[in-house]
Structure formats: C-alpha cells, structure tokens
Amino acid sequence: GAGVSQTPSNKVTEKGKYVELRCDPISGHTALYWYRQSLGQGPEFLIYFQGTGAADDSGLPNDRFFAVRPEGSVSTLKIQRTERGDSAVYLCASSSSRTSNEQFFGPGTRLTVL
Amino acid sequence: DQQVKQNSPSLSVQEGRISILNCDYTNSMFDYFLWYKKYPAEGPTFLISISSIKDKNEDGRFTVFLNKSAKHLSLHIVPSQPGDSAVYFCAASVGTTSGTYKYIFGTGTRLKVLA
Prior knowledge:
Number of strands of chain A: 11
Number of helices of chain A: 0
Helix content of chain A: under 10%
Number of helices of chain B: 0
Radius of gyration of chain B: 14 Å
Shape of chain A: globular
Shape of chain B: globular
Helix content of chain B: under 10%
Strand content of chain B: over 45%
Oligomer: heterodimer
Distance between the termini of chain A: 33 Å
Number of strands of chain B: 11
Largest sheet of chain A: 7 strands, mixed
C-alpha cells in the first residue's frame, strides 16, 4: 500500500546498545513526525521535520536521541546507549504540507531494551 | 502535566447503542482537535477533527462536539458496531512559528462494543 511504513516492526536490544529505527513516509509528504508511545499512555511528540530539516526537536528526551531525514523522504531515529526506559512503541507520521493538520501514522516499531 | 485528559480508560457499549467518549484539555491555545482510532499492532488512524471555531462536526456515524468554555470535547458514535471496538485517542494541536502541528494526545479510552 501507499501508507507510512516503519522498519523493523520489533526490535529487541540490550541496555547500552545503539539502535536505528526507520520510517518511510507517504510519497510526497513533506512533513514527518516521530512520536513515542509508552505502555498505557498516548503517543508523545519527539521531533518534526519539514523537508530535510528538523523544525522542532523539543520533544527529544535527551541527547541520546537523534533523528535525520537527509533527502527529505526517509527518516531514521537513532538512539545511543539505550536504557530500559527507552522501551516503547515508536510511531512515525507524515502529512502532506506545512499547513496540513491531518497526520497519517505508520504501524510503529516496538523497541524492547533488556 | 497532562494537557489532554481522557479520564475513562475503558467503556463498554451494546451494539446499536450510542458510544460517548470524553476528553478534557487545559491549554486554551489549542486550536484544532482530532480523534484517532487504534487497533492492536497498528498505528493510529484518523477518525474526525474539529476546529476551535466550531462546536460540532459530523461525519456519518461519528460526531465530535466541542465546548470551549468547559475545555471539553466528546466523540459520539451512533449506532455503535462491533468493528468500532478499539482504543480511541483524543489529540489537540496548536500551530507554532516553526510550522509544527504537533499533537498532544490523551491516554486513550478502550471501547468495547458488545454484539
């Protein structure tokens, strides 16, 4: 289909390791968002890209988290020195323009840090 | 500080009856509100939205009501169907100078429609 895709669907890692989570937005969508959903909570905003640039990274919890979108399409969320508290579902969403207020979500990547 | 609250973690309704899901917010700067539905192992899917300049928006079986003075919105589903069983998230957004429309989500209400 033509929806937002995320890989991997599940990732299990050990504390202290580095992980990368990938998001493929809907083709042509210029805005891309990352959210994190912990158990029993709603999704929590992490970072927003407009094109290639991170327009708002105010939701990143600390400097272990970083995201890139080098060509304005695919984005990668990178987590260094993972901690057990990073375990969550990481959701990616895209929208069609800077002014669009409807975001389309991918299925998420479930990250488990042992 | 939870800016968007869904105080009912779960709700059960008989098929054919009305489901009412509630959401409260604290930030008067929010200018757009949305409801998303989420099935297990899937991402949230957009259901219906409302701008802060309106007090009602209807789309088929789904109606969202906004009461700005009370900072309260609700989603009505009528008639409810078993396929509506899912977790429903209320979300609010405010545009920023960076162009962000980042959503602030509630914690969700799990709706179960009984056949």
